[in-house]
Amino acid sequence: MSTRDPLLSVRDLTTTFTTDEGTLTAVDGLDFDIHEGETVCIVGESGSGKTVASESITRILSMPPAHIDGEVRFRGRDVGALSDAELRDLRGGEIGHIFQNPQDALNHCYSVGWQIVEAIQFHDDVSEAEARERAIELLDRVGIPEATARFDDYPHEFSGGMKQRVMIAMALAPEPDLLIADEPTTALDVTIQSQILDLLEDIQEEFGMSILFITHDLGVVAEVADRVLVMYAGKLMEEGDVYTIFKEPAHPYTQALMECLPGRGESTKGIQGSLPDPTNPPDGCRFADRCPHAVEDCKKGDQPTLYDTGTADHRVSCVYYGPGYDESRILDAELSTGSAAGNGGTERTGGMNDD
Ligand SMILES: Nc1ncnc2c1ncn2[C@@H]1O[C@H](COP(=O)(O)OP(=O)(O)OP(=O)(O)O)[C@@H](O)[C@H]1O
Ligand code: NI
After folding, report:
1. SS3 for 349?
2. Ligand 1 site, CB within 6 A
3. Which listed residue, of 100, 131, 280, 320, carries a Cα 20 to 30 Å from 148's Cα?
4. Nearest Cα to 218, choosing from 52, 348, 42, 54?
């Protein structure tokens, strides 16, 4: 990794909600960077805080109920210090967002063409005719057939995959430097899903933007990521480049996720047990209750610090990588379950998923 300044730098990001059950900590002390042109994936089970983390960056979350602490810098600018108007400019400009459900993000009362025109004009002072022309180019670029003819169609006249393409066109309209994509393909069937992933990849190359991609699907991670952040119960458990994460997953949680990989979709059996109560997280490692390797130290104090594994830019929050422990116990345990990355259908022996 180079020493150039990151495009986005997030430090000690902590987002809490006030609920009837008490303070719910959705994201707890998250640190990460995104460099220019890079695709960073946040992966983790439902409820681990992926969406809240990504929506805390540009503060899409309404505040209150959310309370956001920590530091977010975009191109060196302190995002936390921006006014509401500046935040709106940031969201409609340098940072684009696409969501799982284009249904919710598109306005049913306007043609898709005009929604893109609006997105262009929000950012650029161009004539309506020019914005219209650019909107058609964008629709064409994201693979809407007969873009000119479809400009005046309403969202309901598009299929799910086509609607997602329209959303991508809208997000691209202001030529963002960072695109935040929160489960953008989860609602789509597998064929359409891979077309959309290919589209995002092509567009990224063409526009040179960075992508923060959120998914619970390691299959998708393998396809799109340069670097991976594994989140669990609001904490960063492991980070590394995509090859390292798939070849040498270091955290028992990451290893457990890998084991769910072949059954992509509904058939995934998942990891036994469930996430801890976010209003009352346990001491020690948040995953300790579900971890086959947990020892007493894992249930004491704070979440372990992120230890270097010895592989470049690979860090893991697990006591076994700290002083006095032998990490080979974890790494070898992983090896014995066979290569998890994409071999498909391997029945595993022993451990977490056994009933
Ligand atoms: N507005 C809110 N008020 C209270 N709690 C919230 C709110 N939004 C999210 N949470 C809680 O924050 C935690 C993290 O939620 P988040 O949606 O970020 O998870 P996720 O990793 O994106 O999950 P999924 O894969 O299901 O999208 C969860 O416990 C969730 O219930
Ligand atoms: Ni989410």
Report:
1. coil
2. 17, 19, 24, 26, 44, 46-52, 65, 216, 278
3. 100
4. 42
What is the chain's Cα-based Rg? 21
Give the CA dihedral 328, 330, 334, 335, nearest 10 degrees: 10
Domain ranges of the chain: 7-94+177-342, 103-175
**Which ligand ends up closest to the CA of 25?**
1
For range 134-157, the mean pLDDT? 95
What would the CATH number be for the domain defined by 7-94+177-342? 3.40.50.300
* Cα–Cα distance, 60 to 12 (Å, whole number): 18
Nearest CA to ligand 1 atom 2: 17
Report the Cα 69 to chain-centroid distance in Å.
19
Q: 73 forms bridges with which residues in the sheet? A: 9, 78
- Kindly list the distances between the CA atom of residue 283 and the CA atoms of 16, 233, 342, in Å, as whole numbers in the listed order: 18, 12, 34
Q: What is the pTM of this model?
A: 0.91
